[in-house]
Each structure stands twice: as structure tokens, then as C-alpha cells.
């Protein structure tokens, strides 16, 4: 071991982060090289000083004070804990989109143009004419919006299917990236349980 | 068996504010000690500790269980302290510690603690000298020294707290220690040498 390397490894040794094999070399070098032995002793002294200054300097318990402010504070959000719901919703949305996607492809295959789909979206929306509508009108109103949403999804799906037919590589790449991003988000939420078992250190 | 920090966080997030208390009780002295050593002012450290736990509570839903709560709260603590040091007024700078009344509670406490083999007076002086040397390091070097020597975190934990690579942790520790050695061991005889 060279002297320069010794200096480099010394801190890791004193921090207890050095592999055993390197440790042996380090001790060997320390015993055979006078200048490195001095470097070692000086560093050891510094470590001892730091240890002597380690005592916690708190003289007052702040827990009550902290809890007082926290009690007055609104509850934190629970976003992280909705992982399961997000998973279910995503699956459902993907299923719906997939279904509509294939009807979209079907439309394109059957020669229905995107403009026809767009027409369908517009025609299925009908706005109520007056504020005092009866129940039937209300039903028609909501059904109109629902069918408009479905038609809109179909419209988007037809665009995507046209894109796939025209530019298959780029579109599939983009869709793949979107799916991967989705998986990343969902799997990120489920790490919580796994890491509980490994907890034992003070920090 | 103790309830784990993760369970407590989960209970907090499902609406039980009191589940936060054990977390506060367990970590507040470490957080206080860390920020105190960063800013070296008793009142500021008290305010910052309060602020750190407030931030932690408000951001609890962003807690990443990849880390422990101890690591996570120290990340907030170091950030808050560095942030404070950056935006503090110039007159805050403590040039002469003996005239700083805010540091008193600690000194009193230190005087009550006996550090073998130093005498009580010597230990208080020695402690102040070390504390000052640490305080005068630049913030990012100070942070690694505090986390390593006073919080006794390992390299992995320090790298998690500061979000820096392992190599940077080692490098900063080395640079910080070279500086500390220069201040504490080069110019004056070491404390250990003056007491037999
Ligand atoms: Zn050597």
C-alpha cells in the first residue's frame, strides 16, 4: 500500500466502512511506515475529540411545544395511501380505453372517418333550453353527456388508431412510454409495506 | 415491541394526529442537536426544530418509505438549517462566542457533564473549541461532520440525508476533517495534551 492510498483509506477505516481485506493492508502499512503512523495518530486524536463533543446539547423538551402547533395544523393529505384505488381505476380506465380503441380501429377499418366520429360527438350533446326542465329532459341531458363522453373517447381512439396505422413505430413507442410511466407510478406506491421489515436502526 | 415509525406515520395519515407525538418525542432531541450545531444559536435552533417538525407533518404524505423517518427528518433539518444560514442577516454571525448569551443553556449543561479524563472546566473549554471549529466549516462540510460524528450515521445514511453520492460523502468528510485537524490540532496543543 502506498502512503497516498493510506491517507485515502484511513477515514473509511476509522468510520468502520472499510472491507476487511483492505483493513489488513492498512494496518500493515501503518506498522511499517513512520509518517503514516503519525497521520494515523493525528486522525485518531481528532476522532476522539469529536467523540468527546458528542453529548447532546439539548436542555429543554420541545415535544409539547411542537405538538401544540401540530394540533392546530390541518391534517396532511393521504395521497400515498390511495395506491390500491389508483391501481383499480387505472385498470378500469385501460379496459374502457382498450375497448373503445378497438371500436375506433373498427370504425377506421370500416371507412368511418375521423370527421364522422367528431360529428357523432357534437350531435350527441344537447343542451337543455330552459332552466326549469322536467325529469325527462334532465335524463336526456345526462344521457347526452354520457354518450358524448363515450363518443369523445371513441374519437380519441380513432385518432390513435389512425396514428398507429400511419406511424406505427412512433405511436407504439409513445404508448409504451406512457404505460411504463404508469407502472412506475403505481409500483412506487407499493414500496411502503415492503420496507417495514428492514427497519431497525436509530435513524 | 415498539410500534414502528412506519405504523405511526400510517396512523397519522389516516387522521390520528396523536400518533405523531411518539415520533416527535423520539427524534426532537436529535433534530435539535443537529440544527443547533449547524446554526450555533440556542433560540434559532429551537425555532428551527419546531419548523422542521411542522414541515415534516405537513409533508408527511410525501414520506418515501425507502428511507427511515430518522433519515427523512434529518434531511428536512439539514435543509432548514442551511437555508437559514444562507438567508440570515450578517449581524447574526457569531464572531465571539463568549459574548453570545444564546449559547448559554448548552454551556451550563456541558458544565454538569463530566468528560473523563478532562476536568469539568477543561471539558467545557474543549467542547466550545470543537463546537466552534465545526460551526466555522462551510455548511455542506459541517453537515457531513455532524451527521457522521454526532448522529453517528453511516455513509449510506448520510448519502440518503443529503442526497449526494457515496463518493461525495467520503470526499466531504475528508475535506472537513482536514480542516478540523488544521484548526484543532495544528495551531494549538491538543486538549488531550494539556490534561494528564
Ligand atoms: Zn506510508
Care to describe what's here?
Chain A is built from nine helices and no strands. Chain A has 203 residues and is mainly alpha-helical. Chain A is elongated, with a radius of gyration of 34 Å. The two termini of chain A are 35 Å apart. About 6% of the residues of chain A have low confidence. Chain B is globular. Chain B has ten helices and no strands. Chain B has a single domain, classed as Rna Polymerase Sigma Factor, Chain: A. Helices cover 69% and strands 0% of the residues of chain B. The C terminus of chain B is likely disordered. Chain B starts with a helix and ends with a helix. The relative contact order of chain B is 0.11. At the A-B interface, helix 1, helix 3, helix 4 and helix 9 of A face helix 1, helix 2, helix 3, helix 4 and helix 5 of B. Bound molecules: zinc ion (ZN). Zinc ion binds next to helix 1 and helix 3 of chain A. The site of zinc ion has 6 residues of chain A, from helix 1 and helix 3.
CATH topology of chain B: Rna Polymerase Sigma Factor, Chain: A
The low-pLDDT segments of chain A are 189-200
> Biggest chain pair contact, residues each?
A-B, 50 and 75 residues
Q: Considering DSSP H and I runs of 4 or more, what fraction of the residues of chain A is helical?
A: over 70%
Number of helices of chain A: 9
CATH class of chain B: Mainly Alpha
Count of the separate structural domains of chain B = 1
Cα radius of gyration of chain B in angstroms: 18 Å
Instruction: Give the terminus-to-terminus CA distance of chain A.
Output: 35 Å
Net shape of chain B: globular
Amino acid at each position: 500500500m502506498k502512503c497516498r492510498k493510506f491517507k485515502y483509506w484511513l477515514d473509511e477505516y476509522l468510520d468502520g466502512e472499510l472491507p476487511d481485506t483492505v483493513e489488513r493492508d492498512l494496518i500493515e502499512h501503518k506498522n511499517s511506515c513512520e509518517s503514516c503512523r503519525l497521520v494515523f495518530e493525528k486522525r485518531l486524536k481528532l476522532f476522539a475529540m469529536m467523540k468527546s463533543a458528542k453529548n447532546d446539547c439539548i436542555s429543554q423538551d420541545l415535544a409539547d411545544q411542537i405538538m401544540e402547533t401540530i394540533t392546530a395544523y390541518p391534517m396532511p393529505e393521504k395521497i400515498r395511501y390511495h395506491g390500491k384505488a389508483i391501481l383499480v381505476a387505472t385498470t378500469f380506465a385501460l379496459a374502457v380505453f382498450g375497448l373503445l380503441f378497438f371500436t375506433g380501429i373498427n370504425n377506421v377499418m370500416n371507412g368511418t372517418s375521423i370527421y364522422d366520429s367528431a360529428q357523432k360527438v357534437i350531435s350527441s350533446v344537447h343542451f337543455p333550453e330552459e332552466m326549469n326542465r322536467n325529469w325527462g329532459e334532465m335524463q336526456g341531458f345526462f344521457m347526452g353527456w354520457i354518450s358524448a363522453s363515450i363518443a369523445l373517447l371513441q374519437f380519441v381512439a380513432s385518432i390513435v388508431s389512425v396514428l398507429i396505422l400511419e406511424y406505427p413505430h412512433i405511436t407504439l413507442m409513445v404508448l409504451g412510454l406512457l404505460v411504463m410511466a404508469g407502472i412506475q407510478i403505481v409500483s412506487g406506491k407499493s414500496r411502503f409495506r415492503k420496507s417495514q421489515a428492514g427497519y431497525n436502526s436509530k435513524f | 415491541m415498539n410500534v414502528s415509525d412506519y405504523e405511526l406515520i400510517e396512523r397519522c395519515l389516516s387522521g390520528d394526529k396523536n400518533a405523531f407525538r411518539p415520533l416527535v418525542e423520539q427524534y426532537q432531541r436529535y433534530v435539535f442537536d443537529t440544527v443547533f450545531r449547524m446554526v450555533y444559536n440556542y433560540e434559532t435552533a429551537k425555532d428551527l426544530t419546531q419548523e422542521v417538525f411542522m414541515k415534516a407533518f405537513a409533508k408527511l404524505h410525501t414520506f418515501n418509505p425507502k428511507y427511515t423517518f430518522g433519515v427523512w427528518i434529518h434531511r428536512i433539518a439539514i435543509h432548514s438549517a442551511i437555508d437559514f444560514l444562507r438567508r440570515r442577516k450578517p449581524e447574526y454571525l457569531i464572531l465571539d462566542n463568549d459574548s453570545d448569551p444564546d449559547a448559554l443553556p448548552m454551556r451550563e449543561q456541558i458544565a454538569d457533564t463530566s468528560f473523563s479524563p478532562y476536568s469539568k472546566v477543561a471539558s467545557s473549554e474543549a467542547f466550545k473549541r470543537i463546537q466552534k471549529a465545526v460551526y466555522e466549516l462551510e455548511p455542506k462540510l459541517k453537515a457531513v461532520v455532524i451527521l457522521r460524528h454526532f448522529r453517528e450515521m453511516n455513509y449510506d445514511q448520510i448519502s440518503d440525508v443529503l442526497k449526494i453520492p457515496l463518493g461525495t460523502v467520503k470526499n466531504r468528510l475528508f475535506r472537513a476533517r482536514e480542516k478540523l485537524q488544521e484548526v484543532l490540532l495544528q495551531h494549538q496543543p491538543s486538549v488531550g495534551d494539556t490534561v494528564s
